[in-house]
Sequence to fold (209 residues):
Amino acid sequence: MIKVLVVDNHPIITTGFKLLYKDHDDIDIIGTVDTGVAIFEFVRRHKVDVIVSEIELPELNGITALKAIKKEHNHIKIVMFSYHPEEIYAINTIKAGASAYVLKSASTDTITKAIKQAYRGDIYLSDKMSKHLNYNDTRNSKSRIYKRLSTREVEVLKLLSSGKKNKEIAEELSINEKTVSTYKARLYKKLNVNNLIDLVNQGKQLDLE
Fold:
């Protein structure tokens, strides 16, 4: 169960989150606070996996709070959920350490998807903003992707990129073929591809050495 803290000074938003996820299988709203400062007291007292926060908050704005929280509690993932234009704020909040930026006009399915992706360690942006990020920040994007891969996943990706088959990889790494398949499945997911050709191309673009 993903433990979520909602930060917003509008009761209709916090109440909406509680109702939306009241009987959810994967997401549990464990609390709500209405100021940026109150976040810190809450995370000291409770185990939080994901924070869903507005940017514009009393006492301390969401972006300033985001940076401070990531320094003290780097494991907590943060989804910025705001009415501010994504064209202006989305990329900057991701660079500041957020895992997602979702407009308040988005669907409930979208915020659910963003929370789940953030919890898994992935980045969530709208399609438009994802393309913008890739276009303007390709190098940092690659670095971010690379950091999400475990040492073993990098090894498997290197060997796949060099043309080796599952059996050869298993022998070289002293693991069984089923384990290789598991690592391949993880790589497909983390690199957002669905076939071996695209996976190998991604590996080459990451400049694995």
Notes: The chain is about 55% helix and 15% strand.
